[in-house]
Design a protein that fits this description.
By secondary structure, this protein is an alpha+beta fold. Helices cover 47% and strands 19% of the residues. The chain has twelve helices and nine strands.
């Protein structure tokens, strides 16, 4: 099936489509990733934009981690690959799944991170200042991504954040407080929320969205930043992998061909093209 997908991709597909640090993927490679995910033959010139963006986004996140590890001379050896393969198969992934080799590489990298070691410590401690913040934030939570785009549009048009939060946010607690989430240390928010706020700080922005989480789509306003000492490496425990993934996303250079989505360095994700605003604005009552 994978060979058929590559043949179906046609001519000219050697054009670079995605770059993460020093690693590049051409259009054929993207078609192969989508074929793996969908289990269907695909044509690189007829890929669904949302599907392609989601697949490329996953690729970027884990390749960014691999690139970070390479920068700090962290080697993922054969033993780690074998252990990762055994774990994935034990978890139910078919040994014949064409995605398995890629998943093994990503899982092995995560396992090496979780094991710690001098290179992992060096990678974290060199970048821990990026995570050394207590964040005072407000948010507006909506169910759909185009609703979040509409909220961003309304705010850019001069609408009041607190009034919008009160009227449309799906988080009743913070919504009734004008969207305020108060001030909390890093590690309390879901990872995508934290990554977006950190990316906004790095970019000098105070408003960011849409940010996806298991709760829906957030528009986040950074109200105040209080520098605090970052969590010591030895105290990270189970948060180590999430911290390294955040650092990787904040420090890697990522380029994505527009047909496969747009890399948003603030949110740290590959987003598909935004849909029309009119339906979302109507749902929000504006």
């Amino acid at each position: 099936m994978l060979a058929a997908a590559l043949l179906a991709a046609g001519c000219g597909s050697s054009i670079e489509a995605v770059r993460v640090g020093d690693t590049a993927l051409d259009r054929n490679g993207v078609a192969a990733l989508v074929a793996e995910a969908s289990r269907e033959q695909v044509d690189v010139d007829a890929l669904d934009a949302s599907t392609a963006a989601a697949v490329v986004d996953r690729y970027v996140r884990y390749e960014a981690l691999s690139d970070l590890l390479a920068e700090y001379d962290v080697v993922v050896d054969d033993e780690a690959f074998t252990a990762a393969r055994d774990r994935l198969i034990a978890a139910g992934i078919d040994a014949a799944d064409p995605s398995l080799p890629r998943f093994i590489g990503w899982q092995a990298a995560l396992d090496v991170v979780e094991a710690g070691g001098s290179g992992i410590r060096a990678a974290y401690e060199a970048n821990a200042h990026l995570l050394g913040h207590e964040l005072c934030t407000s948010h507006i939570l909506v169910p759909y991504e185009d609703d979040a785009h509409a909220v961003m549009h309304l705010l850019a048009s001069g609408e009041d954040f607190a009034e919008l939060a009160t009227s449309v946010s799906q988080d009743p607690g913070s919504g009734q407080a004008g969207g305020s989430l108060g001030c909390v240390a890093l590690g309390r928010f879901v990872p995508t929320f934290e990554r977006a706020t950190l990316g906004a700080l790095a970019a000098g922005a105070t408003l960011v969205g849409p940010v996806r989480s298991e709760f829906g789509f957030h528009v986040i306003r950074i109200d105040e930043v209080r520098p605090v000492p970052p969590v010591a490496f030895d105290d990270l425990g189970p948060r180590l992998s999430a911290a390294l993934l955040q650092v990787a996303g904040l420090t890697r250079t990522v380029e994505v061909e527009s047909r496969f989505g747009t890399w948003d360095p603030v949110v740290g994700r590959v987003a598909p093209p935004a849909g029309p605003l009119a339906p979302a604005l109507a749902r929000l009552g504006s």
